[in-house]
């Protein structure tokens, strides 16, 4: 069935972009199962055949880690799916994850040449297909690690940055121990991104792969409290530390009434459901209050996740209020589409001004003000300008704030020689990922203040290579390292 | 897994246990807490450190069974284990160093202030302990407190033991007798509030430990937010200790009740699941 066929250029042009079958919106909004079901073999081979194998493949430029896209697509078109997965893994060790969560429409697919006249090749879906095929058919090659170097390194955090860093370091023969604050590894992949977008077995497969490489994962250790960076380096005999602690500090609006019951940060709300399984309460002991009318504030992936998780808890109404327009919303295109199809009620160009509670301290109404777009701001997007007099009250009993994140100061407070910018974002040497503290490297959201899975992975590779070279050079750093936040590279 | 090495019922529906957690024991400081999980379905439950043994790698916890999770915990036996223990969490207590220290504990709070008393006494500071309880059978850690402190007062609401009344009655007596430099009060909110209100006009530095509803305990969720001096703080990382004179107690009480309906539902579930445990109440 996976016999490749030959296409003339004209035939290629005529293949329509294949779409993954999905659970119907009416069905999926009642369950936590994955929404897109993945390509069939036929659809995958057909879709891969749409790639015209450009001489200068711009798609690669669009991918932050430079996946060899045409090469892997050719393998898919030829029916050699496991080889395709291995090709991707040369640069991206988490293709089953990135295929699902990358904002492809802004990256690889945005610059795919087929996309100029037609719809771009579905690179993300094919990446997911290849990786799923390899995993589900038990074709994953067992890890090969270099002979032990004798160096022992600590990775702090087990999100995409930590997992990638651990992989790259373990592969090179270093003894790696991951310290994770929560009781389960995965970082935002597990506690933030819901299971209907990223099934648990995909994350668990990556974690168990690392364990087979000899990586030890110690959960329930909050670095800075359970153990400090200084102790890791000076008392526990670690030769280097890799920080992948993310940007997990939720922002609030500081509006009147914000501490009323029923008002959550998206982190808390999503953690209660994704990590603590409040959807199964009381079998699972952690509750969440998802009322009859839910308001989600924000326009990013976090807001979409909060809205779509809410839908699955069975309320009458889920609103999203976002202060800019749909075109400026930072969420992945697919998440927006899915949220709309599932019945989320979007109110563009709106923002909350205050929250009103009942006599028992629970939120009962939210006041929403309209916005207009003004001059472009620092991000290049047009600034939302409040429109006084346009305020309106909405009855709600749950509010979820998805307003963005900062970097948790726990580690830098206890290790002041790790320099940060004003916002607390850790500064690194862009070439090596080394922080101002010799031997401490950092990658992911902790050096950007909140970005994407694939950027976290890319930086983690750089930092792991930086640490590897530093270790092999006899732990000698270069003086006067230039330091920057990753936002500038 | 964190084994329970020792367990004693010290009052109705209240257990004292020694739990294995060497990494936590090594770093524990007075005023800090842990978050524990019973099993894979378990909620993350914050518990104060009522002591530790760094050499043995154990923690002493005092658990009052008041709901779904804590009742199940109280029913555990020596040899059983907690699935997860993370800590030490929160900032260590920071107390002004002059004059007499008074530590006041109500309920599990009596255990929670013990490490502070031990530390203060070891620094040569005169330390007075006050234990408050509803009645005699609920008085906790009295023997330990007497071993450590220079003086100990016990109050019971019903007068079945010690001074009849509230911890503030004992505090009044102490304040008449000597100059107090700092007060630490840990227990039910009405108790902490009453202590704070009594010492605010007297300008005696007073610290309370805020038991907000928590999830991660790492500063990641903001569920534990409290208002102190008009500013929103996260009790798990900015606290749990705060200045008793500027805490918004009404907000704390209101937020503690956020899940009242769900807690009832969970208890009903427990009654069906494990009637013998639910009965113990
Ligand atoms: C709800 C949500 C949806 C998202 N959706 C997408 C998406 O669709 N596509 C996309 O590309 N990006 C998405 N993102 C962003 C993406 O998840 C992050 O950019 C990415 O996870 C960053 O990876 P990281 O490894 O740097 O940090 P994290 O994933 O945040 O992991 C950090 C880990 O470190 C642990 N940690 C923190 N402090 C300590 C400490 N002191 N000691 C020990 N452990 C510690 C944390 O518990 C956590 O497990 C989303 C983010 C959120 C919140
Ligand atoms: C810093 C801190 C230290 C604490 N120390 C101790 C201690 O040493 N011994 C002890 O017995 N208790 C302690 N508590 C209180 C204990 O955490 C709660 O009694 C427990 O979480 C109740 O859970 P439950 O399922 O048994 O009861 P539930 O019926 O679910 O709740 C009963 C009440 O406990 C509070 N509560 C519920 N869930 C949580 C949660 N996740 N976090 C915090 N409070 C919650 C709520 O106010 C609720 O109304 C402490 C709490 C905090 C925040
Ligand atoms: S990693 Fe992301 S950006 Fe790169 S090719 Fe894959 S889906 Fe595209
Ligand atoms: S740009 Fe598009 S068509 Fe060209 S090689 Fe890349 S995926 Fe294929
Ligand atoms: S418990 Fe989540 S931030 Fe404090």
Instruction: Show the largest interface.
Output: A-B, 42 and 42 residues
- What is the overall silhouette of chain A? globular
Number of strands of chain A: 16
Count of helical stretches of chain B: 11
β-sheet strand percentage of chain A: 15-25%
Nearest-integer average pLDDT of chain B: 95
User: What does the largest sheet of chain A look like?
Assistant: 5 strands, parallel
Number of helices of chain A: 19
Low-confidence parts of chain A: none
Portion of residues within helices of chain B? 25-40%
For the termini of chain B, the CA-CA separation is 27 Å
State the oligomer.
heterodimer
Q: Give, in spatial order, the strands making up the sheet with the most strands of chain A.
A: 3-2-1-4-16
What's the overall geometry of chain B? globular
Helix content of chain A: 25-40%
Roughly how many Å apart are the termini of chain A? Answer: 45 Å
Structural class designation of chain A? alpha/beta
Describe this protein's structure.
Chain A has 489 residues and is α/β, with parallel strands linked by helices. Helices cover 33% and strands 15% of the residues of chain A. Chain A contains 19 helices and 16 strands. Chain A has helices spanning 9-14, 25-28, 41-48, 58-62, 69-77, 81-89, 95-101, 114-117, 123-136, 160-171, 188-191, 200-212, 229-234, 266-275, 301-311, 333-341, 410-414, 445-448, 453-472, and strands spanning 152-156, 175-179, 216-218, 240-243, 249-250, 263-265, 293-297, 317-321, 345-347, 350-357, 363-376, 382-386, 392-395, 398-401, 405-406, 440-442. Chain A has a 5-stranded parallel sheet. A 5-stranded parallel sheet of chain A has the order 6-14-7-8-9. In chain A, helix 15 runs parallel beside helix 16 (333-341). The mean pLDDT of chain A is 93. Chain B is an alpha/beta fold and 281 residues long. Helix content of chain B is 31%, strand content 31%. Chain B has 11 helices and 17 strands. Chain B has helices at residues 22-27, 68-74, 109-112, 114-122, 142-148, 167-177, 189-199, 235-238, 249-256, 260-273, 275-279, and strands at residues 2-11, 14-20, 33-37, 45-48, 51-53, 58-64, 81-82, 84-89, 100-106, 127-133, 151-156, 163-164, 180-186, 206-209, 225-228, 231-234, 241-243. In chain B, strands 12-11-10-9-13-14-17 form a 7-stranded mixed sheet, with helices on both faces. In chain B, strands 5-6-2-1-7 form a 5-stranded antiparallel sheet. In chain B, strands 4-3-8 form a 3-stranded antiparallel sheet. In chain B, strand 3 (33-37) and strand 4 (45-48) form a beta hairpin. Chain B is globular, with a radius of gyration of 18 Å. Chain B starts with a strand and ends with a helix. In chain B, 54% of the residues are buried. The mean pLDDT of chain B is 95. At the A-B interface, strand 5 and helix 14 of A face helix 1, strand 8, helix 9 and helix 10 of B. One flavin-adenine dinucleotide binds at residues 101-102, 156-162, 179-182, 187-188, 192-193, 222-224, 244-246, 248, 270, 301-302, 305, 332, 408, 410-411, 444-446, 451-454, 456 of chain A. Residues 101-102, 156-162, 179-182, 187-188, 192-193, 222-224, 244-246, 248, 270, 301-302, 305, 332, 408, 410-411, 444-446, 451-454, 456 of chain A line the site of one flavin-adenine dinucleotide.
């Amino acid at each position: 069935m996976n016999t490749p066929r030959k296409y003339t250029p004209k035939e290629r042009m005529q293949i329509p972009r294949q779409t993954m079958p999905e659970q119907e919106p009416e069905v999926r909004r009642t369950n936590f199962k994955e929404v897109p079901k993945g390509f069939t073999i036929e659809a995958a081979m057909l879709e891969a055949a749409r790639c015209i194998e450009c001489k200068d493949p711009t798609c690669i430029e669009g991918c932050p880690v430079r996946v060899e896209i045409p090469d892997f697509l050719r393998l898919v078109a030829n029916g050699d799916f496991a080889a395709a997965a291995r090709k991707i893994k040369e640069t991206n060790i988490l293709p089953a994850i990135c295929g699902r969560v990358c904002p492809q429409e802004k990256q690889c697919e945005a610059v795919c040449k087929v996309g100029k006249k037609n719809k771009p090749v579905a690179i993300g879906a094919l990446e997911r297909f290849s990786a799923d095929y390899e995993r589900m058919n038990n074709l994953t090659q067992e890890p090969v690690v270099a002979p032990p170097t004798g160096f022992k390194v600590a990775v702090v955090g087990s999100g995409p940055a930590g997992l990638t860093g651990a992989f790259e370091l373990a592969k090179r023969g270093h003894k790696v121990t991951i310290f994770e604050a929560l009781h389960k590894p995965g970082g935002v992949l597990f506690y933030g991104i819901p299971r209907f977008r990223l099934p648990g077995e995909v994350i668990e497969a990556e974690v168990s792969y690392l364990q087979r490489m000899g990586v030890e994962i110690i959960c329930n250790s909050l670095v800075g409290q359970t153990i400090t960076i200084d102790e890791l380096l000076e008392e526990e005999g670690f030769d280097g530390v890799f920080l992948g602690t993310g940007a997990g500090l939720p922002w609030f609006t500081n509006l009147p009434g914000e501490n009323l019951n029923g008002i959550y940060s998206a982190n808390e709300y999503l953690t209660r459901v994704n990590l603590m399984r409040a959807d199964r309460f009381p079998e699972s002991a952690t509750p969440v209050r998802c009322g009859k009318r839910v308001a989600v504030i924000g326009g990013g992936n976090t807001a979409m996740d909060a809205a779509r998780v809410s839908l699955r808890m069975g309320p009458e109404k889920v609103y999203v209020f976002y202060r800019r327009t749909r075109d400026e919303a930072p969420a992945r295109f697919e998440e927006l589409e899915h949220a709309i199809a599932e019945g989320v009620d979007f109110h563009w160009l709106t923002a909350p001004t205050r929250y009103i509670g009942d006599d028992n301290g629970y939120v009962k109404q939210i006041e929403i003000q309209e916005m207009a777009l003004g001059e472009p701001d620092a991000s290049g997007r047009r600034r939302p300008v409040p429109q006084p007099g346009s305020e309106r009250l909405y009855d709600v009993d749950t509010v979820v704030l998805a307003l963005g994140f900062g970097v948790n100061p726990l580690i830098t407070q206890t290790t002041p020689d790790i320099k940060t910018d004003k916002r607390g974002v850790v500064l690194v040497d862009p070439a090596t990922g080394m922080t101002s503290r010799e031997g401490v490297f950092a990658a992911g959201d902790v050096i950007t203040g909140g970005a994407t899975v694939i950027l976290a992975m890319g930086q983690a590779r750089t930092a792991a290579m930086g640490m590897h070279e530093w270790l092999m050079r006899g732990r000698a750093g270069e003086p006067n390292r230039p330091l920057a936040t990753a936002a500038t590279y | 897994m964190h084994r329970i090495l020792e367990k004693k019922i010290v009052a109705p529906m209240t257990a004292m246990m020694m739990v294995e957690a060497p990494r936590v024991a090594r770093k524990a400081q007075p005023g800090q807490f842990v978050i524990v999980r019973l099993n894979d379905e378990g909620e993350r439950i914050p518990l104060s450190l009522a002591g530790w043994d760094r050499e043995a790698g154990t923690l002493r916890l005092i658990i009052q069974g008041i709901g779904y999770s804590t009742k199940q915990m109280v029913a555990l036996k020596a040899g059983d284990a907690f699935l997860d223990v993370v800590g030490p969490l929160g900032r260590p207590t920071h107390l002004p160093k002059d004059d007499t220290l008074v530590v006041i504990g109500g309920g599990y709070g009596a255990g929670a202030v013990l490490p502070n008393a031990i530390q203060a006494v070891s620094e040569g500071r005169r330390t007075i302990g006050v234990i408050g309880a509803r009645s005699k059978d609920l008085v906790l850690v009295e023997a330990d407190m007497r071993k450590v402190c220079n003086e100990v007062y016990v109050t019971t609401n019903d007068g079945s033991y010690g001074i009849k009344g509230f911890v503030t009655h004992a505090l009044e007596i102490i304040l008449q007798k000597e100059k107090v430099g700092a007060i630490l009060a840990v227990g039910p909110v009405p108790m902490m509030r009453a202590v704070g209100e009594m010492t605010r006009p007297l300008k005696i530095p007073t610290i309370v430990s805020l038991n907000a509803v928590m999830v991660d305990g790492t500063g990641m969720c903001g569920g534990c937010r409290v208002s102190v001096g008009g500013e929103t703080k996260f009790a798990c990382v900015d606290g749990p200790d705060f200045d008793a004179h500027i805490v918004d107690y009404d907000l704390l009480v209101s937020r503690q009740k956020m899940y009242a309906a769900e807690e009832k539902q969970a208890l009903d579930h427990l009654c069906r699941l494990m009637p013998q445990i639910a009965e113990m109440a």
